[in-house]
């Protein structure tokens, strides 16, 4: 992979931005998930309005070989509609919580998209040929009078403008009482898991009318509920292993071979709390918002409110690496609790080689950490730095009293501009960053 | 330098960061300075807790803790929007309240607070219903049991049949009333058991309620293969036959709730908007008996007096606007326009 060097050795440049420019952001346009497919050719986004937009990578033009190609809209479709649960008098949001691609097996592409209650398998296929010369139909589709047909002809396939169709192939519904927060395709490519606040189900992609419940942490008495599931993921290589994280900052690794109901974990990952930093907010900020296995399957990464931690699957008592995302917020926790920002769920992602990790922050900042050099960088996704091929300037938040030039003080941060969703191309140094209703694509300058 | 005490660091975004970094105006501190508290020095990073005496006497810490408690309770109540509340957020807030409650109980400040509430209450307005409900809770409280850990009945809200949602909304009002000047006995009648001791008879009610609710829940979901709970086809009424005599009082309470509230269930966030119109609506008495009684202090009035910094935590009422928008949105879906 080109440009393997560390976070600061990357030269991230602006490539594209998708989405409306105006200040008035429609709630439905807010991007809620971003995901590259296995090859990186396709980039899918889901939004609060229940729509999925897929971008496709265009090949580099011969004129400008030093630039990677651009991502252009490939397909747009409405994945989920708002529903109303009449029994509970509550609305079911159409917001797409997660999109996960299936590995490509034929010409069509498949992805899973989910809202709070229902998972759908979508097939995205291309049509670029059309049959012409039917015997029984005219070109405009009208039936021909059979008595007028005097000869037979063989229909011919003629090229047509590319049409990309999305059709729902499976709908996996009614299996979750609580809000689905994660879906994850298994390495066997036949099954996948879906997790809500209290339960995890295992599905077969072909079977929609039943699923296996493999984790259930709902207490008999809901009053005793103190912990919920926040994220879950299948191991990338071992189809019998999955992990799930909790609101108490713990991760449980489970083996589906051990029992039908994996309530007893095979491994339990938890970092002991630092007693000197204990506060009323300790539990809230320890709640894990995202968990991701490394591509190698040897490590996993967790994101809590202030930090990202890398865990070695063979060591349960503490993470091997901890990266502070925005430690300057630690003194602001009460205000962040008041305005609910403390409950924001940030995601994190690995690069293709597992040498770097990325996660979002506030003020449209996002952070990258190089695991080898231990260097980190803060970048901003903003329209101001959106000139074509402009290199992104590192940003810095001033924590002390004196604010240097070009630094921004903690009190000036815009907490409404949060970057919760980011994705890293599985092979190249291309990243997609969702900033509210805009999708920014940045690329590393190739030497 | 006196820094924010221990673990509750309070600050605001808009103002330039003062040394003390606190939300509270200076005047407020003076009010409590008579108790002769010792300021906790910045180096004092006593992790587990400062000594009970220090903690309870340190005005800024207990003020901040109280404000955090108030804020948390309001957050729990205001999350009854038209969309199902975020369970993770509710659980985290509930755990925070539990933590505060535990600490305040160790301090002895919890008992002080509940006694203060009792003292402020008008003794003549006792209801039969609440007395019956709270009969055993007194005994439990006096037995010196630690208060039942805070539990969020509201967690059940979004996940149950419509009738239960009504209860849930009403329990909101009940909870709000617990902050009003009612006796500890009255407050223990609150569905949100937590800080106010819950007696065994109530536990039983709730457990049975929970079971019923969960069973109904199981039924509501079609093809919910993973739900191992038995489906109960009959409504709550039938189940009541199985309840013990004591828990019938719980029935009475919930029964009253159901009768009282027509669809759509009143949204407490909206209620707040109209709170000046009919303050007695929040009154526990009103809710239980379905009658209008003499207007008492509304819950927010009490919040103001408890934590004298004023209703800063109510800035979250900006969510009311979005609630109205959601209401419109819902109507559109129903009407199908």
UniProtKB/TrEMBL annotation, chain A:
Q: Offer a single GO CC term for the protein.
A: protein phosphatase type 2A complex
Signal peptide (residue range): none
Q: Which UniProt keywords apply?
A: Repeat, WD repeat
The record ties this protein, via SUPFAM superfamilies, to:
WD40 repeat-like (SSF50978)
Cited InterPro entries: PP2A_PR55, PP2A_PR55_CS, WD40/YVTN_repeat-like_dom_sf, WD40_repeat_dom_sf, WD40_rpt
The domain of life is Eukaryota
PROSITE patterns with a match to the protein in the record: PR55_1, PR55_2
Please name the GO terms that the record assigns under molecular function: protein phosphatase regulator activity
Entry's transmembrane regions: none
Which intervals of the chain are annotated as region Disordered? 381-404
Q: How does the record describe its quaternary structure? A: PP2A consists of a common heterodimeric core enzyme, composed of a 36 kDa catalytic subunit (subunit C) and a 65 kDa constant regulatory subunit (PR65 or subunit A), that associates with a variety of regulatory subunits.
What PANTHER family does the database record attribute to this sequence?
PROTEIN PHOSPHATASE PP2A REGULATORY SUBUNIT B (PTHR11871)
The family assignment reads: Belongs to the phosphatase 2A regulatory subunit B family.
Q: What is the recorded name of this protein?
A: Serine/threonine-protein phosphatase 2A 55 kDa regulatory subunit B
What organism does the UniProt record list as the source? Gasterosteus aculeatus aculeatus (three-spined stickleback)
UniProtKB/TrEMBL annotation, chain B:
Q: Which GO terms describe its cellular component?
A: nucleus
Give start and end of each SERTA domain.
61-108
> What start-end ranges are recorded for coiled-coil regions in this protein?
none
Q: Where is the composition biased (Acidic residues)?
A: 202-238
By its UniProt entry, which InterPro entries does this protein fall under?
A: E2F-SERTA_domain_protein (IPR052262), SERTA_dom (IPR009263)
Superkingdom = Eukaryota
Taken from the record, one Pfam family name reads: SERTA
| Compositional bias segments (type: Basic and acidic residues) | 239-249
Q: What is this protein called?
A: SERTA domain-containing protein
Q: Where is this region: Disordered?
A: 19-51, 197-249
């Amino acid at each position: 992979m080109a440009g393997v060097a560390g976070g600061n050795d990357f030269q991230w440049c602006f490539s594209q931005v998708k989405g409306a420019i105006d200040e008035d952001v429609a709630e439905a346009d807010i991007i809620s998930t971003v995901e590259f497919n296995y090859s990186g050719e396709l980039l899918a986004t889901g939004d609060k309005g229940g729509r999925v937009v897929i971008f496709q990578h265009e090949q580099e033009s011969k004129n400008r070989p030093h630039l990677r190609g651009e991502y252009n809209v490939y397909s747009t479709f409405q994945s989920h509609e708002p529903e109303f649960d009449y029994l509970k008098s509550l609305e079911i949001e159409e917001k797409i919580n997660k999109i996960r691609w299936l590995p490509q097996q034929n010409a069509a592409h498949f992805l899973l998209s989910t809202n709070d209650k229902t998972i759908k398998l979508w097939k995205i296929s291309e049509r670029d040929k059309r049959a012409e010369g039917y015997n029984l139909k005219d070109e405009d589709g009208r039936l021909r009078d059979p008595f007028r047909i005097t000869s037979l002809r063989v229909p011919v396939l003629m090229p047509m403008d590319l049409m990309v169709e999305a059709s729902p192939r499976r709908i996996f519904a009614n299996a979750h009482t609580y809000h689905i927060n994660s879906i994850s395709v298994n390495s066997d490519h036949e099954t996948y898991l879906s997790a809500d606040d209290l339960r995890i189900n295992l599905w077969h992609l072909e079977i929609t009318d039943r699923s296996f419940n493999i984790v259930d942490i709902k207490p008999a008495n809901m009053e005793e509920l103190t912990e919920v599931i926040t994220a879950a993921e299948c191991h990338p290589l071992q189809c019998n292993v999955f992990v799930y994280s909790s609101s108490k900052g713990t991760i449980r690794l489970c083996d589906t071979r051990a029992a039908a109901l994996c309530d007893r974990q095979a491994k339990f990952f938890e970092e002991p709390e630092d007693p000197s930093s204990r506060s009323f907010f300790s539990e809230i900020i320890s709640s894990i918002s995202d968990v991701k296995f490394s591509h190698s399957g040897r490590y996993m990464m967790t994101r809590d409110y202030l930090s990202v931690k890398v865990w070695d699957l063979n060591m349960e008592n503490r993470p091997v690496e901890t990266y502070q995302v925005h430690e300057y917020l630690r003194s602001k926790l009460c205000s962040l609790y008041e305005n609910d920002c403390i409950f924001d769920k940030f995601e994190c992602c690995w690069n293709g080689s597992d040498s770097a990790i990325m996660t979002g922050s506030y003020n449209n900042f996002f952070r990258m950490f190089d695991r080898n050099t231990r260097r980190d960088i803060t970048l901003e996704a903003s329209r101001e730095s959106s000139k074509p091929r402009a290199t992104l300037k590192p940003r810095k938040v001033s924590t002390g009293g004196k604010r240097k030039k070009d630094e921004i003080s903690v009190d000036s941060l815009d907490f409404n501009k949060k970057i919760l969703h980011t994705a890293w191309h599985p092979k190249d140094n291309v990243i997609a960053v969702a900033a509210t209703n805009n999708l920014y694509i940045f690329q590393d300058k190739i030497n | 330098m006196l820094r924010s005490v221990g673990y509750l660091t309070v600050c605001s975004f808009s103002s330039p960061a003062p040394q003390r970094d606190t939300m509270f105006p200076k005047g407020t501190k003076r009010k409590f300075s008579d108790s002769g508290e010792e300021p906790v020095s910045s180096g004092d990073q006593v992790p587990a807790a400062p000594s009970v005496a220090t903690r309870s006497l340190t005005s800024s810490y207990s003020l901040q803790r109280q404000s955090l408690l108030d804020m948390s309770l309001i957050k729990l109540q205001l999350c009854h929007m038209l969309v199902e509340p975020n369970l993770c957020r509710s659980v985290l807030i509930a755990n925070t309240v539990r933590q505060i409650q535990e600490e305040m109980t160790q301090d002895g400040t919890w008992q002080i607070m509940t006694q203060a509430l009792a003292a402020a209450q008008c003794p003549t307005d006792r209801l039969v219903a609440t007395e019956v409900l709270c009969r055993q809770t007194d005994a439990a409280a006096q037995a010196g049991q630690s208060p039942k850990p805070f539990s969020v009945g509201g967690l059940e809200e979004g996940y149950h049949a419509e009738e239960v949602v009504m209860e849930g909304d009403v329990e909101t009002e009940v909870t709000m009333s617990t902050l009003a000047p009612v006796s500890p006995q009255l407050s223990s009648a609150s569905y949100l058991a937590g800080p106010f001791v819950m007696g065994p008879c109530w536990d039983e009610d709730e457990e049975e309620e929970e079971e019923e609710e969960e069973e109904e829940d199981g039924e509501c979901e079609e093809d919910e293969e993973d739900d191992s709970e038995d489906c109960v086809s009959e409504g709550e009424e039938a189940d009541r036959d199985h309840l013990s005599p004591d828990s019938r009082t719980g029935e009475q309470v919930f029964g009253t709730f159901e009768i009282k509230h027509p669809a759509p269930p009143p949204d407490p966030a909206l209620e707040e908007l109209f709170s000046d119109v009919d303050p007695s609506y929040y009154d526990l008495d009103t809710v239980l008996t379905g009658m209008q009684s003499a207007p008492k202090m509304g819950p927010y009035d009490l919040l103001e007096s408890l934590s004298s910094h004023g209703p800063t935590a109510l800035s979250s009422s900006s969510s009311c606007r979005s609630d109205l928008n959601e209401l419109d949105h819902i109507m559109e879906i129903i009407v199908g326009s």
